[in-house]
Amino acid sequence: MGALPATITQLKDLRFLAISRNFISGEIPSSLGDVRRLRTLDLSYNQLTGTIPPVIGSLPELSNLILCHNHLTGSIPPFLSQTLTRIDLKRNSLTGSLSPASFPPSLQYLSLAWNQLTGPVDRVLLRLNQLNYLDLSLNRLIGTIPGRIFAFPITSLQLQRNFFYGLIQPANQVTIPNVDLSYNRFSGQISPLLSTVENLYLNSNRFTGEVPAIFVERLLSASIQMLYLQHNFLTGIQISPAAEIPVSSSLCLQYNCMVLPLETPCPLNAGPQKTRPTTQCNKWQG
């Protein structure tokens, strides 16, 4: 409990510093920038306040930066280390936009969820083609998402609850197991190239048109485990009312511009209404 001991920065050859879940308060000392050989800095789950000192971003050998679950404010400094693979800053109060120079291409894990970040991210993401985990959820980010990121070696893509818009256009079949694009403003038709995603959340967007038949095939064969399409403007899905969805799979279609072909269990927050009002459908689809 209390502030981070200033004497730590006297350990010039320190490589690994992990003091998580210790009720540490106060600010991150800028003098940590003097510990030039530091590779891992983990101060997560504390009560740290203030900004992330820019000198942290200039540590030349930094590989892992874990500052999640604190009360940090201000913008994210650029990180210069070309060996940096993990940044976890989720659940803080960070603000500002992200620059393409913010993160090195070596990054494999990036979590910035539950902050107050703004602005577009398309140019930032295009540089990070080594990512295997990306979570930008619950921010105020805007703009389009480049189709190329769906070819990155990502296992979990979390972009939900932002203000992203535009079309989702992967170039090839998507191999990411978990994709959450819910609660944004994406529009257009749903790409059949997303049908290989095991857990796909597209709910609460502005998607239109019919659901491609390949989704039904993969759902009925239990290749898709979760398919949430509720709260869009979809006009149909080719599935028999007598179809038996596997126990291991879930489908939710509520509040679209179609008569539901079959009853399926939906999450409580999908609401009681089965179909979107015709006036909304006519207005949105012209």
Automatic annotation (TrEMBL):
User: Where does the record say this protein resides?
Assistant: Cell membrane
Q: Would I find Transcription regulation among this entry's keywords? A: no
Task: Provide the coiled-coil residue spans.
Answer: none
Superkingdom field:
Eukaryota
Q: Which UniProt keywords apply?
A: Cell membrane, Leucine-rich repeat, Membrane, Repeat, Signal
Q: Which GO terms describe its cellular component?
A: plasma membrane
Question: One Pfam family of this protein, by short name?
Answer: LRR_8
Q: Could you tell me which SUPFAM superfamilies the record lists for this protein? A: L domain-like
- Protein name according to UniProt: Leucine-rich repeat-containing N-terminal plant-type domain-containing protein
Tell me the lineage of the source organism: Eukaryota, Viridiplantae, Streptophyta, Embryophyta, Tracheophyta
